[in-house]
Design a protein that fits this description.
- The chain is α+β, with helices and mostly antiparallel strands.
- It has a single domain (2-155), classed as Pyruvoyl-Dependent Histidine Decarboxylase, subunit B (Pyruvoyl-Dependent Histidine Decarboxylase, Chain B).
- Helices cover 22% and strands 44% of the residues.
- The chain is built from 3 helices and 9 strands; from the N terminus they run βαβββαβββαββ.
- The mean pLDDT is 95.
């Protein structure tokens, strides 16, 4: 299974419209998001690639399974960051995702590293290095949102 990690930022009149704009920027605005926990199935391949908005237009209204990190704010001069991190077992190509958000890239990176370090400690599999995708935006005068999303599979209803 190919899992695409995409990202987006957005600005809007409200935090909700900023989130929708970030979804559009990530290429997944026209889909119904179904959240998943942190398990990457065996045989998976992770591709870090920003999806184009047209990718979801042809799938308007379909459901998509995701691991999503998102944060928004309307406070001027405040920054928001979202991130997804993952580790993979090279033999089985299975792994773990985590999603975190915060007010700096460093904060999000540390939260991801701490979570994945803990999670692999008690599992018997060997995992490779931690991979990250983090993005952020500063609020200047309108609400903003940042998101990173692992997109699993798009399905019709």
């Amino acid at each position: 299974m190919k899992i695409t990690v995409t990202w987006g930022i957005g600005t809007g009149s409200t935090k909700l419209s900023a989130f929708d704009r970030a979804l559009w920027d990530a290429g997944i605005a026209n889909l119904n998001l179904i959240p998943l926990s942190s398990i990457i199935p065996p045989g998976s391949e992770i591709e870090v690639k920003k999806l184009e908005p047209t990718d979801s237009s042809k799938n308007f209204g379909k459901r998509v399974y995701v691991v999503l990190s998102c944060l928004s704010t309307e406070k001027v001069e405040k920054s928001v960051f979202a991130g997804v991190g993952w580790v993979m077992n090279r033999k089985s190509q299975k792994g773990l995702f985590v999603e975190h958000h915060g007010n700096s890239e460093e904060e999000v990176r540390k939260l991801i590293a701490d979570s994945l370090t803990d999670m692999v400690e008690y599992r018997k599999d060997e995992y490779g290095q931690i991979e990250y995708k983090i993005c952020g935006i500063e609020c200047k005068n309108k609400p903003v949102a940042a998101l990173v999303c692992a997109v699993y599979q798009i399905e019709p209803w």
